[in-house]
Structure formats: structure tokens, C-alpha cells
Write a structure and sequence with these properties.
This protein is of the alpha+beta class. It has three domains: 215 residues, no CATH class; 86 residues; 160 residues, Histidine kinase-like ATPase, C-terminal domain (Heat Shock Protein 90, 2-Layer Sandwich). Helix content is 51%, strand content 17%. Helix 2 packs antiparallel against helix 3, helix 6 packs across helix 8 and helix 8 packs antiparallel against helix 10.
């Protein structure tokens, strides 16, 4: 089984989470910038409206000005806004004569006893000027002033308003704007999540395709991907093709090597027979032991080379394979004396190459023939408690293809090394139990299963826990 990362580590390494967080930060930053810009624009808009209002008040002041008998400017008709009559209301006016019309400063009642300190910048200039200056009660005023000619005399007229009105209007606009920005942020974040999900879907398809290749449902990813993902899929398919070519080449070299060793082994077999005929049985037995060991190692390497091909789409009919194995083993001296029974459904299919299954069952059948008393049975049943490797987040169901004999079994302390994942038990001597079971274990693990060995009352049970073939294969 593949190791699983801790949840925290998996979250830190999640591309989806990184993209969603980046999108959320971008959305929040963009909305914050938009809110700041909208507040600035609203404030400028309010200031323009205030300038228009002050300009109207200035026009009313100018229209109501006149000169008394002494030539001093007087206000005959004050502006009609009632706030000018309320002390410290926030709206003020003030005028004063210049030059020959210079006289006492006159101001609105709303200024009470405060006099606006008009800047020298607009003195004598007939164009309107806009200023920000201190007002009564430590306030800041937005002031509009101009100089008008009144029957040969100059009069400086000013109207002002408290900037707090602008700030309060801007603050109220920001409070009204906040809920809409929050709703917009949620919508944009949801859109970002949907965009990331849709954008990463082809990568999930690549993952599922690789899982299907590993489980044997497919051999290639194909080209049904977006333009940005298709090069990756093509490279992976090319890598799979190159690996298959390398494995086939390695299998061919291993086969050539094995076939090259078989001729010397046959020569040794002839020498053994000649030595036995001469009566040199001790030397013949030693050479036979060495030759047998060499032959088994050759067979084991051939089995490994075949397993390395990783033909994930292969399937086998266990009933047919078991009958073929029985047909061979029952002809041996050890198997001819036994009752062989195959209790497997004809329509059963397993996710394993038929040759690999025959190799595994052949080793188990040979072991059973050596140790059984009268009967050997092949069975296939569900294995709900067994679990194989995980692929794409799902646990494949396993079935048990068992070979049961009625022999004495093996020592309990030997079962652990035999059934441990990756365990190897190469027993000394010529019994053949160790190396044969090691090959069976390798075959089972190569196809996503494992070897299970257990003692029973009626003898020894050796089972291949394998995946059933996927539907449609």
C-alpha cells in the first residue's frame, strides 16, 4: 500500500487550496482598492456639490449687498438658508470692504463671535477661490470666496461650510457600501472556487487515468485532454511505452540467459546419472542439489522478469487454470495418488495474467502434493476482511483462491515469515517449500494481492488473495 501523507501536510501541499487562497486574497485586495477608490470619488462628488451650494450662497450674498451713506458695504437681503441664523450650525458667510470701502467685517449669526481669517491669496482677485481653513470650535471649513465690485468699491465675500458634513456623508456612504461589497466578495470567491475546480478537473482526469492504468482498466491516458494538459498526457503515455519496451527487452535478455543456462544444467543431469550408475551416489547427490538450486533460481528469475512487465489489463479464469495445473501435477508420482477437486465457478475472473496464475498455483499444488494425505481442493470465495492496495482513494475487493490439502501442515512459527508482506523464507534442503512460496508471494504482490498461509484442522490452506477482474475486461 502507498503511504498516506498526514492531513496537515496534504493541505499545505494542495494546489487547489493555494489557488483558492490566492484568489481570495486577490478578491479582497481588489475590493479593498475599489472601496477606497469609491470613497475618494464620492468625497470629491460631495465636495463638488458643496462648491455648487456655496456658489449659490455667494450669489445670494452678492445680490443682497449695497452701500450705506458712508460708503460701507451692507447686506440688505441675507441668504434664505435658515442655518445662517443658527449659532455654530456649520454654514457661515462673511464679507468685508476693501480699498475705499474698507470697513468693519460683517458675518452671519451662525459664526457668533468668531471671525474667519480669510487668506491673503484671494485679496483683490475677482475670480472665486476655494480654501480649507480653521473654523469655530476647532473645526475645518471648506470656504469659497470672491471679490466683487460694488459701485466703485471692492467687497470680499465668503461662504463656508463645516467639512464634517462631507466626512459624515462619506462615512455613511461607506457603511451603505460595505454590505454590497461583502456580498460581491462572497460571489467572487465562490466564482474563484468554481474556476479552480473546473480548471483542475483535467488534472483529476489524469490522476484517474493513471489509477485506471495501474489497476489494469486502461493501458494509456489518451489525448482527450485540454491543450494545456495534452502534452503532459502525451509524455506520460510515451513514458509508459518506453517502460514497456525496456521491460520487454529485459524479459528477453532474462529469457535468453535462462535458456542459455538450461543446456549446462541438462549436461549436469546427464553427469549425475552417469555418476549414479558408477555407484558414486554421494558426489551425484551433491551435484544434484546444486543443479536443483540453480534450476530453481533460473525459474525464479524468469518469473520475476515476467512479472516486471506489469500487464495490468490481463485477466485469468481461475477454474480453467486450476484444471490445467491439476492435469500436470496429477501425473507426477506425488500427485497421482491424490484426489484433486476444483470447486471454482466457471465464470469467475481474476485480475492476473494466466501464466502468472498458473505459475503460482503450480507451486502451491506441488507443495500440496508433497504433503497431502489423500485430497487437495481448489476453492474460490469472498475475502471481506482482506484489503489490497489503495488506488484513487478506494479499497479494491479481494477474493481468495485457495489450495487446501489434508496434510499435517507446517510449524506455526514458520507461518509469520511466510505471510509477512515482503517476507521471504528460503528453506534449506530439497523440500522446495521455501523458494516456491517466495515466488508465489512475489506474484501475488505484483498483482495487488498477497499470499495467505494458515493451518487448519484438515490440513494446510495456502490462498492467493487477488482482485477480481474489473467488469467489461
Amino acid at each position: 500500500m502507498r503511504p498516506h501523507a498526514a492531513p496537515a501536510a496534504r493541505r499545505r501541499g494542495s494546489l487547489r487550496l493555494r489557488l483558492i487562497l490566492a484568489g481570495a486574497v486577490s478578491v479582497l485586495a481588489a475590493l479593498a482598492l475599489a472601496a477606497a477608490g469609491l470613497l475618494v470619488l464620492f468625497e470629491r462628488h460631495v465636495e463638488r456639490r458643496i462648491d455648487q451650494e456655496l456658489s449659490v450662497h455667494l450669489d445670494q450674498l452678492v445680490a443682497g449687498l449695497d452701500r450705506d451713506a458712508d460708503g460701507a458695504p451692507v447686506l440688505l437681503r441675507p441668504p434664505g438658508d435658515p442655518r445662517f441664523a443658527v449659532p455654530l450650525s456649520g454654514l457661515y458667510w462673511q464679507f468685508e470692504g476693501q480699498g475705499t470701502a474698507r470697513g468693519a467685517v460683517q458675518r452671519s449669526r451662525s459664526l457668533w463671535d468668531f471671525e474667519l481669517a480669510l487668506p491673503a491669496e484671494g485679496e483683490g482677485d475677482p475670480l472665486p477661490h476655494r480654501h480649507t481653513l480653521a473654523g469655530p470650535g476647532d473645526t475645518q471649513l471648506l470656504l469659497l470666496e470672491r471679490v466683487v465690485e460694488l459701485r466703485g468699491a471692492s467687497v470680499r465675500v465668503a461662504a463656508a461650510i463645516d467639512r464634517r458634513e462631507i466626512d459624515e456623508a462619506t462615512r455613511a456612504f461607506g457603511l451603505d457600501l460595505a454590505p454590497y461589497l461583502a456580498v460581491l466578495a462572497l460571489f467572487l470567491m465562490a466564482a474563484a472556487v468554481a474556476q479552480v475546480t473546473i480548471g483542475l478537473r483535467p488534472l483529476a482526469a489524469v490522476r484517474d487515468g493513471l489509477a485506471a492504468i495501474r489497476s489494469g482498466r486502461r493501458t494509456r491516458l489518451g489525448d482527450d485532454f485540454p491543450d494545456e494538459i495534452r502534452p503532459l498526457a502525451d509524455e506520460l503515455d510515451g513514458l509508459l511505452a518506453a517502460r514497456e519496451a525496456q521491460v520487454e527487452s529485459a524479459r528477453a535478455r532474462a529469457g535468453d540467459l535462462a535458456h542459455g543456462l538450461r543446456t549446462p544444467l541438462q549436461v549436469l543431469a546427464g553427469d549425475i546419472e552417469r555418476l549414479q550408475a558408477r555407484g558414486e551416489t554421494e558426489i551425484a547427490a551433491e551435484i544434484e542439489t546444486v543443479a536443483l538450486s540453480m534450476r530453481r533460481h533460473v525459474e525464479r528469475e524468469l518469473a520475476r522478469a515476467r512479472l516486471a512487465s506489469g500487464r495490468g489489463t490481463a485477466t485469468a479464469a481461475p477454474a480453467a487454470v486450476a484444471r490445467a495445473v491439476v492435469a500436470v501435477v496429477s501425473r507426477t508420482p506425488a500427485g497421482a495418488r491424490l484426489d484433486w477437486q476444483v470447486k471454482i465457478a466457471e465464470d469467475a475472473r481474476l485480475a492476473i495474467d494466466p501464466d502468472d496464475l498458473a505459475e503460482a498455483l503450480g507451486n502451491l499444488a506441488e507443495n500440496a502434493a508433497r504433503h497431502a494425505v489423500a485430497r487437495v481442493r481448489f476453492t474460490l470465495d469472498e475475502a471481506p476482511g482482506e484489503q489490497g492496495g489503495k488506488e484513487a482513494g478506494e479499497t479494491p475487493r479481494l477474493v481468495r483462491l485457495a489450495v487446501l490439502d489434508d496434510g499435517p501442515g507446517i510449524a506455526d512459527e514458520m507461518i509469520g515469515p511466510l505471510t509477512a508482506r515482503g517476507g521471504r523464507l528460503d528453506l534449506a534442503g530439497g523440500s522446495g517449500a521455501g523458494l516456491g512460496l517466495a515466488i508465489v508471494s512475489e506474484i501475488a504482490e505484483a498483482w495487488g494481492g498477497r499470499l495467505l498461509v494458515e493451518n487448519r484442522r484438515s490440513g494446510l490452506k495456502a490462498a492467493l488473495c487477488l482482485r477480481p477482474a474489473p467488469p467489461g475486461i
